[in-house]
Design a protein that fits this description.
The chain is about 25% helix and about 35% strand. By secondary structure, the chain is an alpha+beta fold. It has one domain: RelE-like (YaeB-like fold, 2-Layer Sandwich). It has a five-stranded mixed sheet with strand order 1-5-4-3-2.
Length: about 90
């Protein structure tokens, strides 16, 4: 199986700076695992969206899109579950 490229939007990088450093390493490991399998068993499609997915990492949610043709996973947001689905 081919590996996907992980791309970070600036919004996701900003979100990461506001998270407790103990949680950051676990979140980054979960994101890096998306390169091997962008659709892990715990992924969920976000309702009302065409290509947005989320994975759960503790109390945080990683919102991302998968572009299968170009082999890219784009990380858009990393937010606490209370704030993850607000627009």
């Amino acid at each position: 199986m081919e590996s996907y490229e992980i791309r970070w939007k600036s919004s996701a990088a900003r979100d990461l700076h506001s998270i407790d450093p103990q949680q950051v390493s676990r979140i980054i490991r979960a994101i890096e695992s998306l390169a091997d399998n962008p659709f892990p068993s715990q992924h969920r499609k976000i309702r009302g969206s065409v290509r947005d997915y989320r994975i759960r990492t503790g109390d945080y949610r990683v919102i991302y899109q998968v572009h299968t043709i170009s082999g890219v996973v784009i990380i858009y947001h990393i937010r606490h579950r209370r704030h993850a689905y607000r627009r």
